[in-house]
Amino acid sequence: MPPARSGRRGTQDAEGTQMIAQARITSDTTATVHLAEETVEVSGADLPEIRDRVKQAFIAAAKAADQDLDVVIVEPDVRHHLRVEPSGRIAGREADQRPVHGPQIDDPLIAPPTDDTADLSGIDRTSLRPRTGEHAAITSGEHVAIGSPATGEHPVIGSPATGQLPTVRPHGGRRRRAAAMPPSTGPASAESPAGSLSSTPSTHSAQSAQSAASAHSAQSAASAASAGSPAIASSAPSAPSASPAPFAPVAPAAPAEQPATSKRPLPARTAPETDSSRPTLKDLQSSTAKPARVKATRGVPGFITRLTRGAISPRPTRRERNETERLERIRRPLDGPRNIAVVNLKGGAHKTTASLMIAATLGVTRGGNVLAWDNNETRGTLGWRGIPTDHPRTAVDLLHDIDRLRSPEASNADLDPYVRPQGGMRFDILASDEDPGSAASIDAAAFGELNDALSRFYRIKVIDTGNNVRASNWLAAVKSADQLIIVSTVREDTFNAAAWMIDELRATGLAEQVDHAVTILSHSSKGKLDSTLRDRLRAHFGAHTRAVTEVPYEHQFVDGSHLEWERVSQKTKEAWLDATALIIDGL
Hints:
This protein has helices spanning about 45-65, 200-225, 230-235, 280-290, 300-305, 320-330, 350-365, 380-385, 395-400, 400-405, 435-440, 445-455, 470-480, 490-505, 510-515, 530-545, 570-585, and strands at about 10, 20-25, 30-35, 40-45, 70-75, 80-85, 90, 175, 340-345, 370-375, 420, 430, 460-465, 485-490, 520, 545-550. It is an alpha/beta fold.
């Protein structure tokens, strides 16, 4: 029977206070994980991959100890206080004043060295000259080790011919660099690969052998000195050594545990000095570049351009210029993955329709990398409204296989068994489970796991939500949203539900999300909208949200069948282009 888990893993400081593990994300490609027994350097291709590997390091440490692990992740602008369970579950916790392993939380974030080579460029070479009583001979082509009476270590003097210093390998205690693969999720063992959280015995043995050989060299040199050898200094390098490197530093016979290798800040980038009296490449390009002339492509001006094959090219009309500017707004680059959450607490408020049209508009105009995600806490209909696929898998199935997406080797192809491609509209759908009991298993923590994994593969996620403001996954989707979309039909029950939801969000501390939101009023009938009601709705929601826009009635949406982009009217597409441009403005 396995031992029961108790308490949280950690060590105690001198006063008996429980210490917690710490990860310091020092750049978009590097991080340092400080655990009770060791310090791990983590590297990756980008920030999402770094965050994932940090989490894997903590999960592996919790598994090795078979108990919960309280951690803090420090980034330049935010700190995450988390509790990591051996099962892999990660949940938030309240911040406290317990000490942490490694540097203080408020210490500056400094990236680790880019390799294992110590930087000796700042050493004053004159300080390495032998002092009275020390034996050294500097001859052409030879390197001589001079002992330090304070530390017992022997720095190496470079060749007088080149003036260069050889590299020295640091030997920080218990510090190691993570391999490209994330830590193994299996039990830790002494034979774990370099990417696991256990130390490698072969590395330790090699260091022990090198230390023993270095100690033997030091003892041989001391024996020669006591015997009065005429070539004391020159004989030291020729002493027996197990290391093939002739200029390796000599360590004491029984070195004490050394602290972790000190870090150095990354060098600041400085612009090269330029002579202001001389023109630069940029000046040349500016003087020779021809101004781009925008040619009309639509209407009568566009017809003239095509008829004359560009010989006569009138300026585009104001309408065409506005459409071009709108497309440029939608296609503008984003500096990271973004979430768009579509909300209203009333069923039939056109949330699913809005999610599909936003995702389709983004997919068609931006060229893909868009996901429409049904995060309904009960049975959602987003999967039904999309183009059918061969598989019935949903977000619950993806959650069960989430470790596959966390692997550094994971690609978009690994998502094919779970998402539903939408053809020429260039977006995918992740459906909710048709069993309400299964869908309820996606709580706030599960939403966070899915969101982190999916952010590696999709630039924009459009999240369709349910109707329960108290559901943890609903609240998690709203909190994660970079842009909140409040959608409502022009009916009393749905716009009253939207207004109540706004009041509820403000009361629960999410006023900033509401202030930044976009309201979309969807016409639910062909009839002409009452102008007084329209003015009142635009005034109310305009006082709460960043922008208010309207989309017309679309007959295709009435029957609830799957979306066919070709059947959507041009008027409806234009309205959703306007709405999508407003959304991207907020990202």
